[in-house]
Amino acid sequence: MVDISILVPVYNECETLGETLRQIQEVCQSMHFQTEVIVIDDGSTDSTSQVAVIAGTILLRHERNRGYGASLKTGLREARGEIIVIIDADLTYPPQRIPELVDHLSNADMAVGARTGRHVHIPWLRRPAKWILQKLANRVAGQKIPDLNSGLRAFRKAPALRYMHLFPDGFSLTTTLTLAFLCDGLRVEFLPIDYARRKGKSKINPVRDTINFLVLIIRVAAYFEPLKVFLPATMISGLISLYLLGYYFWKDGGVSDTGVLACTVTLLLFMMGILADLVVRRSRS
Is the entire prediction scored with pTM above 0.85? Predict the structure, then answer.
């Protein structure tokens, strides 16, 4: 019986996959668990699949490139272990920390390798957007999140499967996983780890993926804590309504249709937020 499934999503990682798998297999031999290593090849055009086969891992392959999240969802569906570990194949994350993450699941539902160690190499270009998204996610979760979308983590499979319908196909799956666990009151622990400089070219598109992260955080907030989305929207709409009413009253001496329309939108946003919150709380009771 398999206890732990280690998922390695890859796309054109033939240069680093072999060393990554070698380190993972060394770690597996040191643990007192039955493990399986699953490589999910997301439509690579190089020899990535051959490297995985030579290393003796389980290989799952997409016929075309579908995305990081799609790869992890494929791996989750096929994984036999009750504990899931995910790790990237670009040698940025230390596989040697996997046993420690798994050990923390004795008191938690998920253990995340937070990139807050002494040696962390995150490109400066990504840091401003990452900071903004982090602050927004902290507000949604109601607590400080050391690392929102770390690609090294261990978690229990059963609760993760409950959120499969929320998981996107892109890089923001790990963000969804973190927020879903925290917003649903599950126990999440963060362990500081080092993060090495990436070998090869990153697959992340800074502009597109930042927008996707932002949309996803709002979507998850609306799903778990709708008032945290609708109340700020209502306040902004209300301020705009007051401005329009005041401006046109000062200019024309009466109430404008634009101001009335803005007030109506404000009221609708408020009512939608209340109804959404009632639906969420009823579904959890």
Answer: no
